[in-house]
Amino acid sequence: MQILSKSARTRQWIIERAASVFNERGYAGTSLADLTDATGLTKGSIYGNFENKDAVALAVFDYNYNRVAAYLKAKIQATDNAIERLLVYPDTYRNYLKVPFLRSGCPILNTAAEADDTHPLLRKKAAGALAFWKKAIENQVKRGIDRGEIKPGTNPTQVAVVLISLIEGAFMQAKVTERTTELKIAMDYLEEMIRGLSV
């Protein structure tokens, strides 16, 4: 086990405490006062560990995204069947309120919606995370085809794009309406779509 230096521990503390604040309020909506309230640290302590708010936001995005990715990866790797692996997505997002770090929304969606024109570095992070997610789904579909679990001729890119679009679009509706009705409808549809890929 790696022992972190005091400064590394402080940085990690700031990232962990600021994670939900940035994900809920966004970059523009998060003030320095919000960060000092969340961390219990002074402005000097925060900026002694991070160059500026941008640096905190970038580190927090990585932290938030990596938590979601690790959670999904563990659930996906708990089963061997390609269809079951893909069903992890509608199951997780249908029940997102049970996952503490997803309650404030998907970090990719939250970041992309705000940073499209205002924060190029955050937009680049979100675009990279989205590309990685898309590739991971494509690989699951290809694996399923190779193993005879998914219909031959299934287009992996099409499945990935539609899956991500359904999840992110449904999440956006849930955030705006403050209800999960449309999200559940979309995840039920996504589950049917995935089951329809089975041989």
TrEMBL record:
Classification via Pfam families: TetR_C_13, TetR_N
Keyword set, alphabetical order: DNA-binding, Transcription, Transcription regulation
Positions of the DNA-binding region: 31-50
Domain HTH tetR-type: 8-68
Coiled coil feature spans: none
Keyword DNA-binding: yes
Domain of life: Bacteria
PANTHER family for this protein: HTH-TYPE TRANSCRIPTIONAL REGULATOR LMRA, TRANSCRIPTIONAL REGULATORY PROTEIN
Protein name in the entry: TetR/AcrR family transcriptional regulator
Organism field: Niabella pedocola
Classification of source organism: Bacteria, Pseudomonadati, Bacteroidota, Chitinophagia, Chitinophagales
